[in-house]
Amino acid sequence: MNYISRRPIAASLAAACLIAALAGCSNDGEPAPRAKPAASQAAPGRYASSNPGSVNTYWIQAPAGLVLVDTLRTPDDARKAVAEIRKTGRPVAAILLTHSHPDHVGGAGAFHEAFPQAPVYASKATDKTMREDERGLYALARSANPAFPARLTYADRTFEGGTPLQVGGLRLETATFTHGESDVADVYYRSDTGELFSGDLATGKVTPALIEGTSCGWLQVLDQLGTRFPAARTMYPGHGAAGPARALIDEQRQYLKAFRALVRPAVAPGSPGGKAVGAGEQKSIAAALERAYPGRPPVADLPTIVQENIKAVGRELSAEDPAKTPAACADQPQQEPRQEPQQGGLLAPVNAYVTAVNGRDLDALAGAFAQDAELVDVGRRFQGRAAIREWARAEVIGGSLTVVKVAESRPGHQRLLVRFAPGGQGGFEAYYAFTVNGSAITRAELTYAR
Protein backbone atom coordinates (compact mmCIF):
# COMPACT_ATOMS: atom_id res chain seq x y z
CA MET A 1 0.00 0.00 0.00
CA ASN A 2 1.37 3.42 -0.96
CA TYR A 3 -0.37 5.95 1.24
CA ILE A 4 2.07 8.78 0.38
CA SER A 5 1.26 8.70 -3.33
CA ARG A 6 -2.42 9.26 -2.61
CA ARG A 7 -2.18 11.88 0.15
CA PRO A 8 -0.43 15.22 0.71
CA ILE A 9 3.01 15.12 2.26
CA ALA A 10 1.57 16.68 5.43
CA ALA A 11 -0.43 13.50 5.96
CA SER A 12 2.45 11.13 5.34
CA LEU A 13 3.43 10.97 9.00
CA ALA A 14 0.00 9.63 9.89
CA ALA A 15 0.35 7.05 7.12
CA ALA A 16 3.75 6.07 8.44
CA CYS A 17 2.14 5.35 11.76
CA LEU A 18 -0.27 2.97 10.05
CA ILE A 19 2.57 1.29 8.20
CA ALA A 20 4.18 0.80 11.59
CA ALA A 21 0.95 -1.13 12.26
CA LEU A 22 0.59 -0.27 15.90
CA ALA A 23 2.41 3.02 16.58
CA GLY A 24 0.60 5.69 18.61
CA CYS A 25 0.02 8.87 16.57
CA SER A 26 -2.30 11.86 16.74
CA ASN A 27 -4.52 12.96 13.87
CA ASP A 28 -1.97 15.50 12.61
CA GLY A 29 0.74 12.85 12.30
CA GLU A 30 2.72 13.83 15.39
CA PRO A 31 3.29 11.18 18.10
CA ALA A 32 0.30 11.17 20.40
CA PRO A 33 1.13 11.88 24.03
CA ARG A 34 0.47 8.88 26.22
CA ALA A 35 -1.24 9.47 29.49
CA LYS A 36 0.84 8.37 32.43
CA PRO A 37 -0.96 5.85 34.63
CA ALA A 38 -1.69 6.76 38.21
CA ALA A 39 0.89 5.47 40.68
CA SER A 40 -1.48 2.76 41.89
CA GLN A 41 -1.99 1.61 38.26
CA ALA A 42 1.71 1.37 37.37
CA ALA A 43 3.16 -2.09 36.77
CA PRO A 44 4.79 -3.66 39.83
CA GLY A 45 8.55 -3.36 40.24
CA ARG A 46 10.62 -6.53 40.50
CA TYR A 47 14.01 -7.58 41.83
CA ALA A 48 15.23 -11.11 41.08
CA SER A 49 18.20 -12.49 42.97
CA SER A 50 20.93 -14.23 41.00
CA ASN A 51 20.89 -17.87 39.91
CA PRO A 52 21.07 -20.61 40.96
CA GLY A 53 17.87 -20.36 42.92
CA SER A 54 16.76 -16.91 41.72
CA VAL A 55 13.84 -15.55 43.74
CA ASN A 56 11.56 -12.57 43.10
CA THR A 57 10.46 -9.74 45.31
CA TYR A 58 7.89 -7.25 44.02
CA TRP A 59 6.80 -3.77 44.95
CA ILE A 60 3.28 -2.60 44.15
CA GLN A 61 2.58 1.10 43.67
CA ALA A 62 -0.10 2.09 46.19
CA PRO A 63 -1.56 5.52 47.08
CA ALA A 64 0.26 5.57 50.43
CA GLY A 65 3.55 4.06 49.28
CA LEU A 66 4.86 0.69 48.17
CA VAL A 67 3.53 -2.73 49.14
CA LEU A 68 6.28 -5.37 48.98
CA VAL A 69 5.63 -9.05 48.24
CA ASP A 70 8.13 -11.60 49.61
CA THR A 71 11.59 -10.97 51.00
CA LEU A 72 14.08 -13.21 49.14
CA ARG A 73 16.40 -15.89 50.52
CA THR A 74 19.09 -14.05 52.49
CA PRO A 75 19.68 -10.64 54.08
CA ASP A 76 22.35 -9.92 51.44
CA ASP A 77 19.83 -10.49 48.64
CA ALA A 78 17.27 -8.39 50.48
CA ARG A 79 19.66 -5.46 50.86
CA LYS A 80 20.26 -5.44 47.09
CA ALA A 81 16.51 -5.27 46.56
CA VAL A 82 16.22 -2.51 49.16
CA ALA A 83 18.67 -0.41 47.12
CA GLU A 84 16.43 -0.76 44.07
CA ILE A 85 13.27 -0.03 46.03
CA ARG A 86 14.77 3.16 47.48
CA LYS A 87 15.40 4.46 43.96
CA THR A 88 11.62 4.89 43.63
CA GLY A 89 11.72 7.61 46.28
CA ARG A 90 8.53 6.26 47.85
CA PRO A 91 7.95 4.95 51.38
CA VAL A 92 7.15 1.30 52.03
CA ALA A 93 3.68 0.82 53.49
CA ALA A 94 3.58 -2.96 54.02
CA ILE A 95 5.43 -6.24 53.44
CA LEU A 96 3.47 -9.36 52.45
CA LEU A 97 4.63 -12.98 52.71
CA THR A 98 3.24 -15.65 50.37
CA HIS A 99 4.50 -18.79 52.12
CA SER A 100 7.00 -20.16 54.61
CA HIS A 101 9.72 -21.55 52.35
CA PRO A 102 13.19 -20.27 53.30
CA ASP A 103 13.89 -18.60 49.96
CA HIS A 104 10.92 -16.25 50.45
CA VAL A 105 11.31 -15.32 54.12
CA GLY A 106 15.06 -15.32 54.81
CA GLY A 107 15.44 -11.65 53.92
CA ALA A 108 12.53 -10.41 56.05
CA GLY A 109 14.84 -9.15 58.78
CA ALA A 110 16.79 -6.96 56.35
CA PHE A 111 13.57 -5.56 54.90
CA HIS A 112 12.24 -4.84 58.39
CA GLU A 113 15.49 -3.13 59.33
CA ALA A 114 15.34 -0.96 56.19
CA PHE A 115 11.62 -0.16 56.52
CA PRO A 116 10.79 -0.48 60.24
CA GLN A 117 7.51 1.40 59.85
CA ALA A 118 6.12 -1.20 57.45
CA PRO A 119 4.17 -4.05 59.07
CA VAL A 120 4.86 -7.60 57.88
CA TYR A 121 1.72 -9.55 56.90
CA ALA A 122 1.06 -13.28 56.61
CA SER A 123 -1.97 -15.48 57.05
CA LYS A 124 -2.38 -17.10 60.44
CA ALA A 125 -1.72 -20.48 58.83
CA THR A 126 1.54 -19.32 57.20
CA ASP A 127 2.69 -17.66 60.41
CA LYS A 128 2.03 -20.87 62.36
CA THR A 129 3.92 -22.94 59.77
CA MET A 130 6.91 -20.59 59.98
CA ARG A 131 7.06 -20.60 63.77
CA GLU A 132 6.72 -24.37 64.10
CA ASP A 133 8.84 -25.38 61.07
CA GLU A 134 7.87 -29.02 61.44
CA ARG A 135 9.79 -30.00 58.30
CA GLY A 136 13.02 -28.46 59.61
CA LEU A 137 13.42 -26.36 56.47
CA TYR A 138 15.19 -23.47 58.18
CA ALA A 139 17.86 -25.66 59.75
CA LEU A 140 18.36 -27.27 56.35
CA ALA A 141 18.64 -23.84 54.72
CA ARG A 142 21.27 -22.75 57.24
CA SER A 143 23.33 -25.88 56.68
CA ALA A 144 23.22 -25.40 52.90
CA ASN A 145 23.74 -21.64 52.84
CA PRO A 146 25.71 -19.85 55.59
CA ALA A 147 24.11 -16.55 54.53
CA PHE A 148 20.66 -17.73 55.65
CA PRO A 149 19.82 -15.88 58.89
CA ALA A 150 20.28 -17.48 62.30
CA ARG A 151 16.98 -15.95 63.42
CA LEU A 152 13.86 -15.31 61.38
CA THR A 153 11.67 -12.23 61.37
CA TYR A 154 8.01 -13.21 61.66
CA ALA A 155 4.82 -11.41 60.67
CA ASP A 156 3.50 -8.84 63.09
CA ARG A 157 0.10 -8.67 61.36
CA THR A 158 -1.80 -11.88 60.65
CA PHE A 159 -5.12 -12.48 58.91
CA GLU A 160 -7.51 -15.31 58.17
CA GLY A 161 -7.06 -16.66 54.65
CA GLY A 162 -9.71 -15.25 52.35
CA THR A 163 -10.01 -12.01 54.29
CA PRO A 164 -9.44 -8.88 52.15
CA LEU A 165 -6.56 -6.62 53.21
CA GLN A 166 -6.40 -2.83 53.13
CA VAL A 167 -2.71 -1.94 52.83
CA GLY A 168 -1.17 1.30 51.63
CA GLY A 169 -4.53 2.49 50.36
CA LEU A 170 -5.06 -0.64 48.25
CA ARG A 171 -7.62 -3.38 48.64
CA LEU A 172 -6.14 -6.83 48.09
CA GLU A 173 -8.15 -10.02 48.01
CA THR A 174 -6.45 -13.00 49.66
CA ALA A 175 -6.74 -16.77 49.52
CA THR A 176 -4.91 -19.49 51.40
CA PHE A 177 -4.26 -22.92 49.89
CA THR A 178 -2.89 -25.98 51.68
CA HIS A 179 -1.00 -29.18 50.84
CA GLY A 180 0.28 -27.96 47.48
CA GLU A 181 3.71 -26.63 46.50
CA SER A 182 4.10 -25.76 50.17
CA ASP A 183 2.15 -26.78 53.27
CA VAL A 184 0.41 -23.38 53.22
CA ALA A 185 0.38 -20.75 50.46
CA ASP A 186 -1.13 -17.26 50.47
CA VAL A 187 -1.93 -15.33 47.31
CA TYR A 188 -2.82 -11.65 46.87
CA TYR A 189 -5.07 -10.31 44.11
CA ARG A 190 -5.82 -6.80 42.84
CA SER A 191 -9.25 -6.90 41.25
CA ASP A 192 -8.80 -3.40 39.77
CA THR A 193 -5.80 -4.47 37.67
CA GLY A 194 -6.18 -8.25 37.50
CA GLU A 195 -2.72 -8.73 39.09
CA LEU A 196 -2.24 -11.96 41.02
CA PHE A 197 0.79 -12.47 43.29
CA SER A 198 0.92 -16.23 43.54
CA GLY A 199 4.17 -17.14 45.31
CA ASP A 200 5.34 -20.51 44.02
CA LEU A 201 1.97 -21.94 42.99
CA ALA A 202 2.60 -21.30 39.28
CA THR A 203 6.11 -20.28 38.30
CA GLY A 204 7.47 -19.12 34.97
CA LYS A 205 9.69 -21.60 33.09
CA VAL A 206 11.80 -22.78 36.01
CA THR A 207 12.56 -26.16 37.58
CA PRO A 208 10.34 -26.28 40.70
CA ALA A 209 11.01 -27.96 44.02
CA LEU A 210 8.98 -31.15 44.43
CA ILE A 211 10.98 -32.49 47.35
CA GLU A 212 7.98 -32.38 49.69
CA GLY A 213 6.30 -35.07 47.58
CA THR A 214 2.93 -33.33 47.17
CA SER A 215 2.61 -33.07 43.39
CA CYS A 216 -0.98 -34.35 43.44
CA GLY A 217 -1.98 -31.81 46.07
CA TRP A 218 -0.29 -29.11 44.01
CA LEU A 219 -2.30 -30.08 40.93
CA GLN A 220 -5.52 -29.82 42.92
CA VAL A 221 -4.48 -26.40 44.26
CA LEU A 222 -3.88 -25.18 40.70
CA ASP A 223 -7.48 -26.05 39.84
CA GLN A 224 -8.64 -24.20 42.95
CA LEU A 225 -6.49 -21.18 42.12
CA GLY A 226 -7.96 -20.84 38.63
CA THR A 227 -11.49 -21.20 39.97
CA ARG A 228 -10.92 -18.70 42.79
CA PHE A 229 -9.54 -15.95 40.51
CA PRO A 230 -11.06 -16.48 37.04
CA ALA A 231 -10.60 -12.81 36.06
CA ALA A 232 -6.88 -12.68 36.92
CA ARG A 233 -4.91 -11.29 33.99
CA THR A 234 -1.25 -11.17 34.98
CA MET A 235 0.45 -13.50 37.42
CA TYR A 236 3.56 -12.41 39.32
CA PRO A 237 5.24 -15.65 40.46
CA GLY A 238 7.86 -16.21 43.14
CA HIS A 239 10.35 -17.41 40.51
CA GLY A 240 10.65 -16.55 36.84
CA ALA A 241 8.94 -13.94 34.71
CA ALA A 242 5.40 -12.64 35.04
CA GLY A 243 2.90 -13.73 32.42
CA PRO A 244 -0.77 -14.36 31.63
CA ALA A 245 -2.30 -15.95 34.70
CA ARG A 246 -4.19 -18.70 32.90
CA ALA A 247 -1.17 -19.59 30.76
CA LEU A 248 1.14 -19.89 33.78
CA ILE A 249 -1.36 -22.06 35.64
CA ASP A 250 -1.78 -24.29 32.59
CA GLU A 251 1.97 -24.54 32.06
CA GLN A 252 2.60 -25.49 35.69
CA ARG A 253 -0.15 -28.11 35.50
CA GLN A 254 1.34 -29.61 32.32
CA TYR A 255 4.82 -29.75 33.86
CA LEU A 256 3.61 -31.55 36.99
CA LYS A 257 1.57 -34.06 35.00
CA ALA A 258 4.48 -34.70 32.65
CA PHE A 259 6.81 -35.21 35.63
CA ARG A 260 4.47 -37.70 37.27
CA ALA A 261 3.98 -39.58 34.00
CA LEU A 262 7.75 -39.92 33.55
CA VAL A 263 8.33 -41.17 37.10
CA ARG A 264 5.38 -43.55 37.35
CA PRO A 265 6.89 -46.41 35.26
CA ALA A 266 9.97 -46.35 37.50
CA VAL A 267 7.89 -47.29 40.58
CA ALA A 268 5.55 -49.73 38.81
CA PRO A 269 5.60 -53.41 39.82
CA GLY A 270 8.41 -55.17 38.03
CA SER A 271 10.46 -52.00 37.45
CA PRO A 272 14.25 -52.43 37.98
CA GLY A 273 14.27 -50.58 41.30
CA GLY A 274 10.89 -51.74 42.54
CA LYS A 275 9.15 -48.96 44.45
CA ALA A 276 12.39 -46.97 44.61
CA VAL A 277 13.65 -45.06 41.57
CA GLY A 278 17.06 -46.49 40.71
CA ALA A 279 20.08 -44.42 39.71
CA GLY A 280 19.76 -45.44 36.06
CA GLU A 281 16.08 -44.59 36.05
CA GLN A 282 16.81 -41.21 37.64
CA LYS A 283 19.32 -40.45 34.89
CA SER A 284 16.86 -41.44 32.17
CA ILE A 285 14.02 -39.37 33.67
CA ALA A 286 16.30 -36.35 34.14
CA ALA A 287 17.38 -36.57 30.49
CA ALA A 288 13.77 -36.76 29.33
CA LEU A 289 12.90 -33.71 31.43
CA GLU A 290 15.79 -31.74 29.97
CA ARG A 291 14.65 -32.59 26.44
CA ALA A 292 11.09 -31.52 27.20
CA TYR A 293 11.99 -28.46 29.30
CA PRO A 294 15.52 -27.43 28.31
CA GLY A 295 17.61 -24.94 30.23
CA ARG A 296 15.15 -24.21 33.04
CA PRO A 297 16.97 -22.79 36.08
CA PRO A 298 16.21 -24.35 39.48
CA VAL A 299 14.22 -22.49 42.12
CA ALA A 300 16.65 -23.61 44.84
CA ASP A 301 20.42 -23.49 45.20
CA LEU A 302 20.45 -27.28 45.43
CA PRO A 303 22.65 -28.93 42.77
CA THR A 304 20.74 -32.21 42.92
CA ILE A 305 17.24 -30.71 42.88
CA VAL A 306 16.10 -32.72 39.82
CA GLN A 307 17.24 -36.03 41.36
CA GLU A 308 15.64 -35.12 44.70
CA ASN A 309 12.41 -34.20 42.90
CA ILE A 310 12.39 -37.55 41.11
CA LYS A 311 12.92 -39.52 44.32
CA ALA A 312 10.24 -37.55 46.20
CA VAL A 313 7.63 -37.95 43.47
CA GLY A 314 8.58 -41.63 43.21
CA ARG A 315 7.82 -42.10 46.90
CA GLU A 316 4.56 -40.19 46.48
CA LEU A 317 3.41 -42.26 43.50
CA SER A 318 4.35 -45.58 45.06
CA ALA A 319 2.11 -44.75 48.02
CA GLU A 320 -0.87 -43.60 45.95
CA ASP A 321 -3.94 -45.78 45.51
CA PRO A 322 -4.79 -45.54 41.76
CA ALA A 323 -8.45 -46.14 42.53
CA LYS A 324 -8.50 -43.04 44.75
CA THR A 325 -6.30 -40.73 42.68
CA PRO A 326 -8.16 -37.43 42.10
CA ALA A 327 -9.02 -36.54 38.52
CA ALA A 328 -6.74 -33.49 38.73
CA CYS A 329 -3.77 -35.84 39.16
CA ALA A 330 -4.50 -38.27 36.31
CA ASP A 331 -1.60 -38.79 33.92
CA GLN A 332 -1.80 -37.43 30.40
CA PRO A 333 -0.03 -38.34 27.16
CA GLN A 334 3.29 -36.58 26.72
CA GLN A 335 2.27 -34.14 24.03
CA GLU A 336 1.24 -30.53 23.80
CA PRO A 337 -2.43 -30.14 24.73
CA ARG A 338 -4.87 -29.11 22.05
CA GLN A 339 -5.90 -25.51 22.58
CA GLU A 340 -9.64 -25.06 22.62
CA PRO A 341 -11.25 -21.64 22.17
CA GLN A 342 -11.61 -19.69 25.39
CA GLN A 343 -13.81 -16.68 26.19
CA GLY A 344 -14.95 -14.80 23.10
CA GLY A 345 -13.96 -17.80 20.95
CA LEU A 346 -10.25 -17.03 21.29
CA LEU A 347 -7.47 -19.50 22.04
CA ALA A 348 -6.07 -18.89 25.53
CA PRO A 349 -2.72 -17.32 24.48
CA VAL A 350 -4.50 -15.16 21.86
CA ASN A 351 -7.00 -14.01 24.45
CA ALA A 352 -4.06 -13.24 26.77
CA TYR A 353 -2.51 -11.05 24.05
CA VAL A 354 -5.73 -9.11 23.43
CA THR A 355 -6.31 -8.66 27.16
CA ALA A 356 -2.74 -7.48 27.69
CA VAL A 357 -3.00 -4.88 24.92
CA ASN A 358 -6.19 -3.42 26.34
CA GLY A 359 -4.83 -3.63 29.87
CA ARG A 360 -1.62 -1.87 28.79
CA ASP A 361 0.29 -4.69 30.46
CA LEU A 362 3.67 -5.07 28.74
CA ASP A 363 4.78 -8.01 30.91
CA ALA A 364 1.62 -9.98 30.16
CA LEU A 365 1.83 -9.17 26.46
CA ALA A 366 5.41 -10.43 26.17
CA GLY A 367 4.56 -13.44 28.33
CA ALA A 368 1.89 -14.54 25.85
CA PHE A 369 4.69 -15.38 23.38
CA ALA A 370 7.11 -18.31 23.41
CA GLN A 371 10.74 -17.44 24.12
CA ASP A 372 11.71 -17.99 20.46
CA ALA A 373 8.50 -16.67 18.89
CA GLU A 374 8.44 -14.67 15.66
CA LEU A 375 6.24 -11.67 14.93
CA VAL A 376 5.82 -10.15 11.45
CA ASP A 377 4.32 -6.66 11.42
CA VAL A 378 3.50 -5.67 7.82
CA GLY A 379 6.78 -7.17 6.61
CA ARG A 380 8.96 -6.22 9.58
CA ARG A 381 10.24 -9.25 11.47
CA PHE A 382 10.86 -9.44 15.21
CA GLN A 383 12.51 -12.62 16.47
CA GLY A 384 12.32 -13.73 20.10
CA ARG A 385 10.30 -12.58 23.10
CA ALA A 386 12.72 -9.75 23.98
CA ALA A 387 12.44 -8.20 20.49
CA ILE A 388 8.65 -8.59 20.53
CA ARG A 389 8.52 -6.94 23.94
CA GLU A 390 10.49 -3.93 22.66
CA TRP A 391 8.23 -3.68 19.60
CA ALA A 392 5.17 -3.77 21.84
CA ARG A 393 6.61 -1.18 24.22
CA ALA A 394 7.18 1.25 21.36
CA GLU A 395 4.16 0.54 19.19
CA VAL A 396 1.39 -1.25 21.05
CA ILE A 397 1.12 -0.27 24.70
CA GLY A 398 -1.25 2.67 24.98
CA GLY A 399 -3.54 1.55 22.17
CA SER A 400 -6.79 -0.39 22.22
CA LEU A 401 -7.57 -3.59 20.33
CA THR A 402 -11.07 -4.75 19.36
CA VAL A 403 -11.71 -8.18 17.87
CA VAL A 404 -14.24 -7.67 15.07
CA LYS A 405 -14.53 -11.36 14.25
CA VAL A 406 -12.65 -14.66 14.24
CA ALA A 407 -12.02 -15.08 10.54
CA GLU A 408 -10.38 -18.52 10.81
CA SER A 409 -9.95 -20.97 13.65
CA ARG A 410 -8.43 -24.42 13.78
CA PRO A 411 -6.32 -26.29 16.38
CA GLY A 412 -3.21 -24.24 17.02
CA HIS A 413 -4.14 -21.37 14.69
CA GLN A 414 -6.47 -18.37 14.61
CA ARG A 415 -6.84 -15.43 12.23
CA LEU A 416 -8.68 -12.41 13.59
CA LEU A 417 -10.12 -9.31 11.98
CA VAL A 418 -9.35 -6.57 14.49
CA ARG A 419 -9.52 -2.82 14.86
CA PHE A 420 -6.45 -1.26 16.47
CA ALA A 421 -6.61 2.30 17.76
CA PRO A 422 -3.17 3.83 18.47
CA GLY A 423 -3.41 5.99 21.57
CA GLY A 424 -6.88 4.59 22.14
CA GLN A 425 -8.57 6.74 19.46
CA GLY A 426 -9.32 6.41 15.75
CA GLY A 427 -7.65 3.35 14.34
CA PHE A 428 -7.74 0.96 11.41
CA GLU A 429 -8.70 -2.61 10.63
CA ALA A 430 -6.13 -5.39 10.23
CA TYR A 431 -5.83 -9.16 10.18
CA TYR A 432 -3.85 -10.77 13.00
CA ALA A 433 -2.89 -14.41 12.41
CA PHE A 434 -1.61 -16.37 15.42
CA THR A 435 0.07 -19.77 15.59
CA VAL A 436 -0.17 -21.35 19.05
CA ASN A 437 1.74 -24.23 20.61
CA GLY A 438 0.64 -25.25 24.08
CA SER A 439 0.22 -22.15 26.25
CA ALA A 440 2.16 -19.68 24.08
CA ILE A 441 2.03 -17.88 20.74
CA THR A 442 4.88 -19.07 18.51
CA ARG A 443 4.17 -16.83 15.51
CA ALA A 444 2.05 -13.77 14.80
CA GLU A 445 1.59 -12.02 11.46
CA LEU A 446 -0.12 -8.63 11.23
CA THR A 447 -1.41 -7.34 7.90
CA TYR A 448 -3.82 -4.64 6.77
CA ALA A 449 -7.42 -5.55 6.04
CA ARG A 450 -7.77 -4.63 2.35
Automatic annotation (TrEMBL):
SUPFAM superfamilies attached here? Metallo-hydrolase/oxidoreductase (SSF56281), NTF2-like (SSF54427)
Record's signal peptide:
1-23
Signal as UniProt keyword: yes
Q: Which Gene3D superfamilies match?
A: 3.10.450.50, Ribonuclease Z/Hydroxyacylglutathione hydrolase-like
Q: Where is this region: Disordered?
A: 318-345
Give start and end of each Metallo-beta-lactamase domain.
54-239
**What keywords would UniProt list here?**
Signal
- Please list the residue ranges that the record marks as compositionally biased, kind Low complexity: 332-343
Q: Which Pfam families match?
A: Lactamase_B, SnoaL_2
The protein in question is named MBL fold metallo-hydrolase
Q: Which organism is it from?
A: Nonomuraea composti
- Source species taxonomy: Bacteria, Bacillati, Actinomycetota, Actinomycetes, Streptosporangiales
